[in-house]
Amino acid sequence: MTVSIAVTGKSGSGKTTITKALLFNLKLMYPDKTFLVVDNDLSCEFGHSFGYDIRNTVYGIRTGKHEYKTGVPSHMTRQEYIEWALDDIIFELDDNVDLLVTWLIGSKDCRCPITGQINNALAKLFKQYDFVLFDCEFDLKYLHQLVDCHIDSTIIVAMPTSESVHLASRIQESSEKHALDGELGIVLNKVTNGLPEDISAQINNYGIKILGTLSYDDTLENNGVKKESQKLNSEIKEIFFRLNLPLRR
pTM of the prediction? Predict the structure, then answer.
């Protein structure tokens, strides 16, 4: 069974930081499991945060611009070719950890056969992993334009401000129809001295489920996600175990 977690939110809210922290801690908790990170953000920041400039993307397959590491095998159906091409662009980040970068996405309204072929190939690919983490572009809509897949939990990352929480309510509204029966909630990032009562009340008024909070940590401001950030690791683990996930050891 594949466990899928999507991290959404405004650019700069800490989506990539939280996705990386989730990955790091999940690897520690489940060392024998396999992981796929799908960078669905237009900035392609996830690979950059590890020091990699990954140019091979799903968009390259869609447009026929991907340069393959080997020659294209003959006697393939078009669907088999798309599946083979996806495997060709997967980037190995670490043992049992792969990264797939999507970049630009075609609309589901497009009647091109490749739209459905990519959808089917991605859905099949995801089932090969124990965990799939999505670093999303704003909300689930952009991911849904790429592939129809079940998301067990969707995390909306927001700052503890009225404006950011209001934006989170819009993200929830636009994501609900794509989340289907999956969990959808908010994580407040860079919280100092506890969550203000007015912000908590605003979240409740919007009907958003609070999945947890992450404290402000100046080491992350200067160094990004590091193993030394015990505060982040502890809070991420706490949030993870609150999620409604179909886990099996």
Answer: 0.94
